[in-house]
Amino acid sequence: MEQVTLIATAAMGLEALVASEVKDLGYREVSVENGRVTFKASVSAIPRCNLWLRTADRIKVLVGEFEAKTFDQLFENTKALPWEDFIPEDGEFPVIGKSVKSTLYSVSDCQAIVKKSVAERLKQKYGVASWLEETGTFFRIEIAIHKDRATLSIDASGSGLHKRGYRIGQGDAPLKETLAAALIKLTNWKPDRPFADPFCGSGTIPIEAALIGQNIAPGFNREFSSEDWRWIGSSLWENAREEAEDLANYDQPLNITGSDIDHRMINIAKDNAMEAGLGDLVTWKQMQAKDFHSNQEKGYLVGNPPYGERIGDKKEVEKMYKDFGEVMKRYPSWSVYILTSNEQFEQVYGKKASKKRKLFNGFIKTDYYQFFGK
Ligand SMILES: C[S@@+](CC[C@H](N)C(=O)[O-])C[C@H]1O[C@@H](n2cnc3c(N)ncnc32)[C@H](O)[C@@H]1O
Fold it and tell me: Which of 9, 217, 285, 371 could form a disulfide bond with 57, CB atoms 3.0-4.6 angstroms apart?
């Protein structure tokens, strides 16, 4: 197989960012829909996209799409797909599923039908009379039905791409690594500019900034389910890892600071940065946000402060936002980016945002308030 169609799944609101990352990797035929970016590419895109995409949730190989209003249609159309191109005779192939606004709403029935249909196809193609042993490589099939259109894909990532492999500790409300990378990519920060996160918690934003700053592939420290797929071949994985090593710019100096009021979080952040292989590249400080100071005239500040969602916390958090806003008045040339669900943020912070963008942090509806520096 030379060409495949890949799906990079994306959190709501991040599709355009994922699409631009896919294009930056050199793949041009890209289509963007809710929650997913689909593109045609050579097989080598599977290792490359898994290693490089910073804002996508996972990579899937599209096997086929068709209309399915009856179980019969689902069975026959699934069976007509070339599963043997992907799954060997001994492959293990569990099926997961989801159904939204569709006639076939019973997910467990859809999963069972797909399982049976794929098994029949493979048995026919491999000339197996009894049952398939499923003792070999792992291929997780997904049946996703949306408005009666079925999409069948195989997951090529394994754990979600946010699992970079560096998070050995975390606080109460860690940001997903993919969202942290997205927050940075939504700024104009360049690696030669100062960068600060005064609410760094376990350090996700500064660590992602350092990885971006030195052009380090975010998946460099982890494994992927498709690494064992024979039809990709280990040489494509080796090439992709070599390419990532060649493109990393470990000599790029960085000026990145992460600070937090809680010294325990600073220790966790330091450990995570070590695990990410960043050593002392990020400066970590225990400090209150209102004590922010810099001798640099211009810089970028990206923060994910507490939102004050718990009853009783709101007043305290708003006072903290206010004090922080006062301090940032002394740095009019810094660009400030804050993610919070607090709808009064601009009033409390004391400045109207240059731009706002709606983003979900997990299930929490937030705004990304962007204050461009002079
Ligand atoms: C939502 S968490 C940040 C999570 C972080 N982005 C991560 O991925 O781990 C908010 C952080 O703000 C810190 N914080 C609360 N009040 C603060 C203040 N006044 N100054 C600085 N940090 C504060 C908390 O200790 C907490 O770690």
Answer: 9
Question: What does the pLDDT profile of the chain (374 residues) look like in tens digits?
Answer: 799 999 999 999 999 999 999 999 999 989 999 999 999 999 999 999 999 999 999 999 999 999 999 999 999 999 999 999 999 999 999 999 999 999 999 999 999 999 999 999 999 999 999 999 999 999 999 999 999 999 999 999 999 999 999 999 998 889 999 999 999 999 999 999 999 999 999 999 999 999 999 999 999 989 999 999 999 989 999 999 999 999 999 999 999 999 999 999 999 999 999 999 999 999 999 999 999 999 999 999 999 999 998 767 999 999 999 999 999 999 999 999 999 999 999 999 999 999 999 999 999 999 999 999 99
Q: Mutate which of 178, 202, 208, 260 to test ligand 1's pocket (most atoms within 8 Å of Cβ)? A: 260
Rounded to the nearest angstrom, the distance between the alpha carbon of 285 and the centre of ligand 1 is: 12
Task: Look at the alpha carbons of 92, 36, 40, 217 in this order and tell me if their dihedral is positive or negative.
Answer: negative
What's the CA gap between 273 and 271, in Å, rounded?
5
Ligand 1 centroid to Cα of residue 261, in Å, is 7
**What is the spatial distance between Cα 301 and Cα 252, in angstroms, rounded to a whole number?**
20
* pTM of this structure: 0.96
Measuring from each residue's beta carbon to the nearest atom of ligand 1, which residues come in under 6 Å?
Answer: 170-171, 173-175, 198-199, 201-202, 204-205, 260-262, 265, 288-289, 304-306, 320
Q: In whole angstroms, give the CA distance from residue 211 to residue 333.
A: 25
Q: What share of the chain is helix, strand, coil (3-state, %, to 5)?
A: 35, 25, 45
Separation of alpha carbons 235 and 47, rounded Å: 10
Tokens encoding 282: 């990020």
Q: What separation in Å is there between the alpha carbon of 91 and the centre of ligand 1? A: 45
